[in-house]
Amino acid sequence: MNISAETLNWLERCFALAVRFFRRKGLSEPDAEDCAAEVRLRLLYALQRGATLSEGYFVAVLRGCYADFVAAQAAQPPVLPLERAAVRAGGSHS
Question: Which among 4, 18, 46, 55 could disulfide-bond with 51, CB atoms 3.0 to 4.6 Å apart, if both were Cys?
Answer without folding.
Answer: 46
